[in-house]
């Protein structure tokens, strides 16, 4: 999807572009999130990503961007197969979430997902932890979308064969199972320069780090 985000004073406003199971916000949902956190004029936009399995999230990462997302359209993509989930911004991998190939509670791969988008008031947490409130005098708040594309396996109950690794589709072939050398270089640059928060490094919040944090994004 190409998005252009709310310009000017967008404090407290969140634009979301995400995948979610059909029960939406239900207690056992799976979900892959792009959340764009608004700002006071002149402050940088932040992207928050999150991953839910069976209703459990708490896998937040936050990144700065290397451009102003309110000036032009930029492309935001999710690659999801049975081996990895990758969040891309303009084809640059900003987050990699690996599967260990064993039954687990961190990698969503057992339910179909739909695509959603929304824009909503989150001034209790979105901008400086809720210190900056939405200025409703600046409304309406508008995010713009264009050039949406999707390539996917259509879900067929009870469990479609294409969910398993079959190599039939481009997104389920070797080149999509791992980052390329060029993607690894971009990803390393992002990790060094743009990561604001990574739950896998939050030992105060998680004294025993989640299992998935021990998996290498480079494999």
UniProtKB/TrEMBL annotation:
Keywords: Apoplast, Cell wall, Cell wall biogenesis/degradation, Glycoprotein, Glycosidase, Hydrolase, Secreted, Transferase. The active site is at 31 (nucleophile), 35 (proton donor). It comes from the Eukaryota. Residues 1-145 form the GH16 domain. The keyword Transcription does not apply. The keyword Iron-sulfur does not apply. Contains at least one intrachain disulfide bond essential for its enzymatic activity. GO terms for biological process: cell wall organization; glucan metabolic process. GO terms for cellular component: apoplast. Catalyzes xyloglucan endohydrolysis (XEH) and/or endotransglycosylation (XET). Cleaves and religates xyloglucan polymers, an essential constituent of the primary cell wall, and thereby participates in cell wall construction of growing tissues. This is Xyloglucan endotransglucosylase/hydrolase. It comes from Populus trichocarpa.
